Amino acid sequence: MTELDPSVLIGKIPEPFRSDILSLTQTIRNAGGECYVVGGSVRDLVLNVRPEEFDLTTSLLPERILSLFKRTVPTGLKHGTVTVLFHDRAYEITTFRKDADYVDGRRPESVEFGVSLSEDLKRRDFTMNALALDLERKLLIDEHDGIKDIQNQIIRTIGDPIGRFTEDGLRPIRALRFVSSLGFSLDPHTAEAIHACRNITAKVSRERVHDELNKALKSKDPFPSLRLFKEFQILELFTSVALYPNENEPAADRMKEIPTFPLSLRLTFLHAWLFGSFAVGTHSKQFLKDLRYSNHNTKDSLFFAGILYEILAWKEKKEITDAEIRKILLHPTCVHATRENLLIVLEHILKLCLVYEPSLRSVLNSSRILALAKESPALLVTELAVRGEDILKHRPQLPPKEIGGILSSLLTYVLENPLENRKEILLQRIPA
Questions:
Q1: Nearest 5°: phi and psi at 142?
Q2: pLDDT (tens digit per residue) in 15-62
Q3: Which fold has domain 153-224?
Q4: Where in the numbering of this chain does the Poly A polymerase head domain appear (predicted)?
Q5: Contact in structure between 105 and 166 (CB atoms under 8 Å)
Q6: Bridge pairing between strands 154-155 and 72-76
Q7: Spatial distance between the Cα atoms of 319 and 95, rounded to a whole number of angstroms
């Protein structure tokens, strides 16, 4: 038990969730069972953070939970979990359990029901996640000094860390992610065990690593977690690509200044940190493929990285011309983004550039660039005043296979001379 007032924590649960959970608890208690809010949601309440979801644990068997409530989904009966739909809100209710031996470094071979709450809390990963809250009886259960560790901002396993990490190789990655998402530090013994259990961590699926890396990237400041990913050589376990060829800490350190949405923005800075620069190559796509990133995120983040690599060369210039802006920035952005969301994507690019290289502010005038984007009559071949059929009519002797090259040449001319995008002018520029 702990001295922290359970009523205070219960009062932090927003409606309608508090009333829902109280009703669920009362139904289960009336059926002779125990029911607690458990895990990360209780930790978040202690931290005065609104939980994203509320998980419950009970002494009743899953079959009894299925019979108690009208709308249920047997989400994980093997592991004792039933999802109860209550007023169209979903609550996972899991039976107290004890895990049998872990044979694959990820999942228990089997689970044993009919155990106590204490036994159930012992199987959990970290002390901060082993808290249980009974809303009806206003009880807070803390048998592993989780409150103390939360107050001290320490990530510590329950019991022997090597034993806990040997059971489940995802736990070390979660520990590293919590460093950024919670702003906590690793307990020294927990940190040592992460080193010792890398062979177990290597068994985790890349999809789960992808999820944890994303949660770190979406943290207020991802750098503390990223630095530990590097220190413990975690990402190297899941990709064939060589990482960290050059020190580029600014990319990770300044990531906190980049919006968390769309994810591709922070992935762009992750790329620069992992590979030393924004230069895009086969390594770039391979890493994102290895870590199971979608085609959409891959395309966007590599586009941003490539165009930043080009623009960063401008920091050596005292000024840039409108033609350079149209050719190096506006044209490729329009190819990638289309006219409809060109301005949105440009604002993303400008944000990335100025966060990474503030000195570019002297030449990278946002108002000027956005105005050019609005005013430029042609940034794409399809926006030229001439079409392929116009060229063939004007020069019928031209082989059709040369039309594409001529249009590209005319676009280059128009990017430099936007007022010249007129049919009669462009036709005269076609070689005889």
A1: -140, 90
A2: 999 999 999 999 999 999 999 999 999 999 999 999 999 999 999 999
A3: Hydrophobic Seed Protein (1.10.110)
A4: 35-156
A5: yes
A6: unpaired
A7: 67
Asked whether the beta carbons of 207 and 292 are under 8 A apart, the reply is: yes
Rounded CA-CA distance 398/375 in Å is: 33
Cα–Cα distance between 23 and 86 in angstroms, integer? 9
Nearest in space to 258 (alpha carbons), one of 245, 272, 246: 272
- CATH architecture of the domain 6-149 equals 2-Layer Sandwich (3.30)
Q: Is the peptide bond before 16 cis (omega within 30 degrees of 0)?
A: yes
Show the tokens assigned to 164: 């806990």
* Of the candidates 221, 306, 316, 320, the residue with the CA atom closest to the CA atom of residue 271: 306
pTM of the model: 0.90
Backbone angles phi, psi at 52, to 5 degrees: -75, -25
What is the CB neighbour count within 10 angstroms for residue 259? 11
Residues 305-354 have pLDDT tens digits of 999 999 999 988 888 999 999 999 999 999 999 998 999 999 999 999 99
CA distance 323 to 326: 5
